[in-house]
Amino acid sequence: MHAELKKLDNSMLGYDVFFDSMDPGVKKSFMNNFSNLWDEIDSIRYYNKDKSANSFKSFIENSKDINTPLSGVHPSAEGHAIWAKELARYITKYNLL
Fold first, then answer.
1. Is the pTM of this model over 0.70?
2. Structural domain of residue 87, as residue ranges?
3. CB < 8 Å & 24+ apart, contacts of 84-89
4. Are 36 and 52 found together in one domain?
5. What is the pLDDT of residue 63?
6. Fewer C-beta neighbours within 10 Å, C or N terminus of the chain?
7. Are residues 69 and 81 in contact, defined by beta-carbon separation less than 8 angstroms?
8. How far apart are CA 27 and CA 30, in angstroms?
């Protein structure tokens, strides 16, 4: 993901986040590119943030414990079951509840 965002950085100007100076409760933040934004995303709360299998689809497609990850273009029942087990493991490991 980081490599793809760097490609965007090179092709676009990025963006700036401005704040209302009249509201002191608003945190000022400046993003001059998408890579910086990606760096601010919590690496625990975003499942496997910097790994290639970081989504439901990529997890089930890369799992060696599943025979049929997809049923057509949708996750199979087996895909749903193995993903549910993985999410429970991940949530427990990082105490996210």
1. no
2. 48-97
3. 86/59, 87/47
4. no
5. 93
6. C
7. no
8. 10
